[in-house]
Design goal:
Strand order of the largest sheet: 1-2-4-3
Helix content: 40-55%
Shape: globular
Distance between the termini: 32 Å
Order of helices and strands: HHEHHEHHEHEH
Number of strands: 4
Oligomer: single chain
CATH superfamily: NADH Oxidase
């Protein structure tokens, strides 16, 4: 089952080769993101592709100075688009838009792994600053920053809690 192998092979990559990722590959990663489940199939998520070194540097600084973001050849910022979901689901649509966006992130990380690239899910950032840098409208929330590139490291998969500690049946 190579699909499951892909899930268990995925690791976070924070060091990248200085080799460009072509537009066709980036588009395939974005398409994989948009293939993720979505509440009401409203696809309440948007993607911002950043290649400009100056903008990547600003994003890195706004992300608690995680400068590996600036070193990635391409960075994708995944955003929740609230109105797209709220028009059907009202206030609860905000949660659904966030779920749509984060489901897309996981699909993108798996696509990156399948393509022998590397990426990491960055969630530690100053939301207001990232929104300002990218000129996001007030109704859009940045959910994740994904630096993507050819890996310059091959870290071991990190340990996980035993599944028995995380699993409950019928009730807590």
């Amino acid at each position: 089952m190579k699909e499951l192998d892909l899930i268990f092979r995925r690791v976070s990559i924070r060091r990248f080769q200085q080799k460009e990722v072509d537009e066709k590959t980036v588009r395939l990663i974005l398409e994989a993101g948009n293939a993720a489940p979505s509440a009401g199939n409203l696809q309440a998520r948007d993607f911002i592709v950043v290649r400009d070194p100056k903008i990547k540097n600003e994003l890195a600084k706004a992300s608690l100075r995680q400068m590996f973001i600036a070193q990635a050849p391409v960075v994708v910022v995944v955003c929740a688009n609230y109105p797209r979901s709220m028009r059907v689901y009202g206030e609860r649509g905000k949660l659904y838009a966030e779920q749509d966006a984060t489901a897309a992130v996981e699909n993108m990380l798996l696509a990156v792994t399948a393509l022998d690239l590397g990426a990491v899910w960055v969630g530690a950032f100053d939301e207001a600053k990232v929104s300002e840098i990218l000129g996001l409208p007030a109704y859009v929330r940045p959910m994740a920053i994904i630096p993507i590139g050819y890996p310059a490291e091959r870290p071991e998969r990190r340990s996980r809690y035993p599944i028995d500690e995380l699993t409950h049946y019928e009730r807590w």
